[in-house]
Amino acid sequence: MHRRDVLIQTPAAAAAAVLAAAAAATAPAPCAAAEAFGDAEARELRVLRQLGGGSYRSVYEVEYTDSLTATVRRAALSCEVLARNRDVRDAAGELEVFSVLQSAYGDSPVMQLLEQLDTWWVKRSRVSVGDTLIVPPQSGQRLPTSTRRAVSLCQLKPLYDFDLRAITKFPPYALGSVPSVRFGGTMLNTEEAAVRMALDLLLAGECLHNAGVLHRDVGLANCMVKDGRGVLIDFGLSEVLKPGQMCRDTLRGQTEYLLPSETARGRGCRGGDVYAMGRTFSETFLDYAPPELHRPRRAMRADDFGSAKRHAAR
Ligand SMILES: Nc1ncnc2c1ncn2[C@@H]1O[C@H](COP(=O)(O)OP(=O)(O)OP(=O)(O)O)[C@@H](O)[C@H]1O
Ligand SMILES: [Mg+2]
């Protein structure tokens, strides 16, 4: 395993200024967890391995010494390239979701079922492994509202064990059929473990909807497992709805997880998340994917087609 050192300085004042400026610039309130980021300290992050990611976002497993507690911790670091104005809007939307969830559920145990954010910062260039990542100390730093050249959004999050794609790599995932297969030290192919994981993810989805958030990208790659418990992640395409609102007038997410009727209407509603979760369970537990929906080599997204209306008209 190849290790590279990444230095991160985290002056609390700078972090607070960044959050305040970003909040003023982009409307969403800063995440409470990020606001609580500690005193001025330097953290040396060692990148242990890449966990995932595509063209815009890379996610790494990192190790660092927490200077407050002097303990070595592992975390996930996601570095996202904001190359287009739409990326910036999505990034602001994602931070808003973390903030909405924090205000809705605070320290409630259901938060363990939804992705958490420890802290975030913006770097005014692309980030690649081996870069020195420094939280800029100047107060003017903010998440821009538009971008002319690529900037990177870095997010430090708790580390989860694996996503549900890992389970589908051992088909057929038949309950009790492969008792020797363990995932992340947790035996998952028992009925009890599978039911608990599924219930966790259903509850996570329900809590998300109850907080007024549409996920819009539920799928195998965005359902994680940590110590045998399900965790719903990736709010990159999520939308915060107005009270009572059930739908958004654009359709987003991987095309094979879209509800056909929503595709026809060109908008995404809560039912679309429910459908995507059902399909995810079908692929995970039953090793079943409708033949007409076989996964393309590169996941197609609804917004690859441009506006949802154009997509619906295809
Ligand atoms: N906190 C984490 N712990 C462990 N693995 C993670 C974590 N966050 C993400 N991953 C892994 O990285 C992959 C990609 O992460 P994420 O969903 O955040 O980005 P993305 O899918 O590239 O973004 P987008 O869906 O916006 O294109 C996940 O499918 C998962 O396997
Ligand atoms: Mg994802």
TrEMBL record:
Identify the residues that the record assigns to the Protein kinase domain, covering every copy: 45-314
Task: Supply the Pfam families for this chain.
Answer: Pkinase
| One of the record's GO molecular function terms | ATP binding
- Domain of life per record: Eukaryota
**SUPFAM superfamilies (UniProt xref):** Protein kinase-like (PK-like)
What InterPro entries does the database record attribute to this sequence? Kinase-like_dom_sf, Prot_kinase_dom, TAT_signal
- The protein's name: Protein kinase domain-containing protein
Taxonomic lineage of the native organism = Eukaryota, Sar, Stramenopiles, Ochrophyta, PX clade
